[in-house]
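Retry 2 of 3 after timeout on previous attempt. Resubmitting structure tokens to design endpoint.
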């Protein structure tokens, strides 16, 4: 796993997506390589932020100071959230792949995973802001909006759909991501008492467990 290359790719995806997506689309890849060299590290960012926020920094409760769930509980919740994030990315990619023909695109599971993973870069990076009290929700919204923009640019390059169908393809993918997030959040609640914004997205990448 080359961290410097991962950072360079994340930076280029966020800052110069129009030129980066064609490069991404042409790269020979495998599912395993995408996970081991990008997704595993990037998807860990929201989980680490969640652990720090709920285990160490604390969550601000209106008129009630700060609430912490404890180190052990925060760690377990973060691990569960992280595991579900890794699963969620792949599930959404499978659905994006299956939907390709409906939008005149070409089915390709690896390309679909590229589209989802690199679009999620925005939410994973934006989740870092969640460590600052009071702006976690803003980070979620900013990350989500930019992730949608990245996906809109990325689908024609990776899934070979006409540009005219990209907006509809993106909208359906967004709905799919939200549904997957809700389902995995439900599973997370059953696995651990923490509740979150989702597994790593409503397609967003920020995750967090609210204390009960």
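Retry 2 succeeded. Sequence:
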């Amino acid at each position: 796993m080359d961290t410097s290359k991962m950072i360079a790719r994340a930076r280029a995806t966020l800052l110069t997506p129009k030129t980066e997506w064609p490069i991404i689309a042409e790269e020979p890849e495998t599912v395993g390589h995408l996970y081991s060299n990008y997704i595993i590290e990037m998807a860990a960012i929201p989980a680490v932020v969640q652990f720090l926020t709920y285990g160490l920094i604390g969550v601000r409760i209106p008129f009630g100071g700060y609430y912490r769930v404890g180190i052990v509980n925060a760690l377990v919740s973060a691990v569960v959230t992280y595991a579900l994030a890794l699963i969620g990315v792949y599930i959404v990619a499978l659905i994006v792949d299956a939907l390709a023909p409906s939008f005149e695109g070409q089915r390709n599971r690896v390309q679909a995973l590229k589209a989802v993973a690199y679009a999620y870069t925005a939410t994973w990076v934006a989740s870092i802001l969640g460590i600052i009290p009071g702006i976690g929700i803003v980070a979620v919204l900013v990350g989500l909006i930019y992730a949608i923009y990245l996906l809109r640019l990325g689908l024609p390059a990776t899934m070979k759909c006409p540009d005219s169908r990209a907006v509809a393809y993106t909208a359906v993918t967004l709905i799919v991501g939200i549904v997957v997030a809700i389902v995995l959040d439900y599973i997370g609640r059953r696995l651990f008492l923490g509740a979150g914004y989702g597994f790593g997205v409503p397609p967003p990448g920020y995750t967090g467990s609210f204390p009960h």
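Attempt log closed. The longest helix spans residues 71-99.
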